[in-house]
Amino acid sequence: MSEWIKSVIQGFSYPGIIFLMFLENVFPPIPSELIMPLAGFFSTTGELSLFGTIVAGTVGSVLGAVPLYYLGKYAGEERLRRWLDRWGKWVGLSARDLKKSRSWFDRHGAKTVLFCRVVPGVRSLISIPAGVAGMPIVLFLMFTTIGSAVWTAMLACAGRALGGNYDQVERVVGPISTAVMIGIVAVIVVRAFRQRRTASR
Question: Is the separation of the CB atoms in 42 and 9 below 8 Å?
Answer without folding.
Answer: yes
